[in-house]
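U., I forgot to send this yesterday:
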Amino acid sequence: MSNNQIGLPINEASKLADKLNILLANYQLFYANSRALHWNIKGEKFFELHLKFEELYMDSFQKVDEIAERILTLGYTPLHTFTDYLKEAKIAEAANISEARPAVEAVLSGYKTLLELEREILDLSGEMNDEGTNALMSDYIREQEKSVWMYSAFLK
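Result:
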Protein backbone atom coordinates (compact mmCIF):
# COMPACT_ATOMS: atom_id res chain seq x y z
CA MET A 1 0.00 0.00 0.00
CA SER A 2 1.36 3.42 -0.91
CA ASN A 3 1.28 6.57 1.14
CA ASN A 4 0.25 10.12 0.31
CA GLN A 5 2.52 13.19 0.50
CA ILE A 6 2.29 13.34 4.32
CA GLY A 7 2.97 9.64 4.85
CA LEU A 8 -0.58 8.37 5.41
CA PRO A 9 -1.94 5.33 3.57
CA ILE A 10 -3.81 6.51 0.46
CA ASN A 11 -6.85 4.27 0.96
CA GLU A 12 -7.42 5.44 4.53
CA ALA A 13 -6.70 9.06 3.63
CA SER A 14 -9.36 8.83 0.91
CA LYS A 15 -11.96 7.62 3.43
CA LEU A 16 -10.97 10.38 5.81
CA ALA A 17 -11.20 13.03 3.08
CA ASP A 18 -14.70 11.79 2.25
CA LYS A 19 -15.76 12.17 5.89
CA LEU A 20 -14.12 15.59 6.09
CA ASN A 21 -16.05 16.67 2.99
CA ILE A 22 -19.29 15.67 4.70
CA LEU A 23 -18.21 17.69 7.73
CA LEU A 24 -17.33 20.60 5.45
CA ALA A 25 -20.80 20.50 3.88
CA ASN A 26 -22.40 20.52 7.32
CA TYR A 27 -20.25 23.43 8.45
CA GLN A 28 -21.31 25.41 5.39
CA LEU A 29 -24.95 24.92 6.40
CA PHE A 30 -24.16 25.69 10.04
CA TYR A 31 -22.41 28.87 8.88
CA ALA A 32 -25.34 29.93 6.69
CA ASN A 33 -27.81 29.20 9.48
CA SER A 34 -25.75 31.14 12.03
CA ARG A 35 -25.50 34.08 9.67
CA ALA A 36 -29.26 34.06 9.07
CA LEU A 37 -29.95 33.84 12.81
CA HIS A 38 -27.61 36.79 13.38
CA TRP A 39 -29.47 38.87 10.81
CA ASN A 40 -33.00 37.88 11.73
CA ILE A 41 -33.09 37.53 15.52
CA LYS A 42 -35.67 39.77 17.22
CA GLY A 43 -37.08 40.33 20.67
CA GLU A 44 -35.81 40.99 24.16
CA LYS A 45 -32.74 38.77 23.69
CA PHE A 46 -31.71 40.53 20.47
CA PHE A 47 -28.52 42.17 21.71
CA GLU A 48 -27.26 39.05 23.48
CA LEU A 49 -28.05 36.59 20.69
CA HIS A 50 -27.08 38.91 17.84
CA LEU A 51 -23.53 38.93 19.22
CA LYS A 52 -23.50 35.18 19.98
CA PHE A 53 -24.64 34.30 16.47
CA GLU A 54 -21.95 36.57 15.02
CA GLU A 55 -19.37 34.64 17.07
CA LEU A 56 -20.85 31.40 15.70
CA TYR A 57 -20.66 32.35 12.06
CA MET A 58 -17.17 33.84 12.39
CA ASP A 59 -15.97 30.63 14.08
CA SER A 60 -17.69 28.49 11.44
CA PHE A 61 -16.11 30.55 8.66
CA GLN A 62 -12.67 29.77 10.09
CA LYS A 63 -13.45 26.08 10.54
CA VAL A 64 -14.72 25.77 6.95
CA ASP A 65 -11.31 26.99 5.77
CA GLU A 66 -9.40 24.70 8.15
CA ILE A 67 -11.38 21.64 7.07
CA ALA A 68 -10.96 22.42 3.36
CA GLU A 69 -7.22 22.91 3.85
CA ARG A 70 -6.98 19.62 5.75
CA ILE A 71 -8.69 17.83 2.84
CA LEU A 72 -6.15 19.42 0.49
CA THR A 73 -3.29 18.41 2.81
CA LEU A 74 -4.51 14.81 2.59
CA GLY A 75 -4.27 15.11 -1.20
CA TYR A 76 -7.94 15.47 -2.11
CA THR A 77 -10.34 18.16 -3.32
CA PRO A 78 -12.76 19.84 -0.94
CA LEU A 79 -16.40 20.21 -1.95
CA HIS A 80 -16.99 23.75 -3.13
CA THR A 81 -20.52 24.10 -4.49
CA PHE A 82 -23.73 24.64 -2.58
CA THR A 83 -25.28 21.87 -4.67
CA ASP A 84 -22.76 19.46 -3.13
CA TYR A 85 -23.16 20.95 0.34
CA LEU A 86 -26.93 20.53 0.28
CA LYS A 87 -26.60 16.98 -1.04
CA GLU A 88 -24.10 15.90 1.64
CA ALA A 89 -25.20 17.89 4.70
CA LYS A 90 -27.34 16.47 7.46
CA ILE A 91 -27.93 19.91 8.97
CA ALA A 92 -31.16 21.38 7.64
CA GLU A 93 -31.53 24.96 6.54
CA ALA A 94 -32.91 27.09 9.36
CA ALA A 95 -35.29 29.33 7.45
CA ASN A 96 -37.33 32.22 8.81
CA ILE A 97 -36.30 31.89 12.46
CA SER A 98 -36.36 35.14 14.41
CA GLU A 99 -37.32 34.12 17.95
CA ALA A 100 -34.76 33.23 20.62
CA ARG A 101 -35.87 29.73 21.61
CA PRO A 102 -36.17 28.24 18.09
CA ALA A 103 -32.93 29.97 17.12
CA VAL A 104 -30.97 28.42 19.99
CA GLU A 105 -32.64 25.05 19.34
CA ALA A 106 -31.43 25.25 15.71
CA VAL A 107 -27.89 25.94 16.94
CA LEU A 108 -28.02 22.98 19.33
CA SER A 109 -29.35 20.70 16.61
CA GLY A 110 -26.49 21.77 14.35
CA TYR A 111 -23.94 21.14 17.07
CA LYS A 112 -25.35 17.66 17.65
CA THR A 113 -24.77 16.78 13.99
CA LEU A 114 -21.31 18.33 13.93
CA LEU A 115 -20.22 16.56 17.11
CA GLU A 116 -21.38 13.18 15.82
CA LEU A 117 -19.41 13.65 12.58
CA GLU A 118 -16.35 14.99 14.39
CA ARG A 119 -16.29 11.97 16.69
CA GLU A 120 -16.45 9.62 13.68
CA ILE A 121 -13.55 11.50 12.09
CA LEU A 122 -11.63 11.50 15.38
CA ASP A 123 -11.94 7.71 15.58
CA LEU A 124 -10.89 7.23 11.96
CA SER A 125 -7.95 9.63 12.18
CA GLY A 126 -6.84 8.01 15.44
CA GLU A 127 -6.84 4.55 13.85
CA MET A 128 -4.57 5.75 11.04
CA ASN A 129 -2.29 7.85 13.26
CA ASP A 130 -3.27 11.09 11.51
CA GLU A 131 -2.38 13.47 14.31
CA GLY A 132 -3.17 16.59 12.25
CA THR A 133 -6.81 15.66 11.69
CA ASN A 134 -7.06 14.14 15.14
CA ALA A 135 -5.92 17.35 16.86
CA LEU A 136 -8.29 19.44 14.76
CA MET A 137 -11.30 17.28 15.66
CA SER A 138 -10.30 17.09 19.31
CA ASP A 139 -10.15 20.89 19.50
CA TYR A 140 -13.51 21.29 17.78
CA ILE A 141 -15.18 18.75 20.05
CA ARG A 142 -13.85 20.37 23.23
CA GLU A 143 -15.01 23.84 22.14
CA GLN A 144 -18.42 22.68 20.99
CA GLU A 145 -19.20 20.61 24.07
CA LYS A 146 -18.79 23.78 26.14
CA SER A 147 -20.98 25.71 23.71
CA VAL A 148 -23.68 23.03 23.91
CA TRP A 149 -23.65 23.36 27.69
CA MET A 150 -23.97 27.16 27.46
CA TYR A 151 -26.72 27.23 24.82
CA SER A 152 -28.60 24.50 26.71
CA ALA A 153 -28.37 26.60 29.89
CA PHE A 154 -29.88 29.52 27.96
CA LEU A 155 -32.97 27.41 27.22
CA LYS A 156 -33.58 26.43 30.85
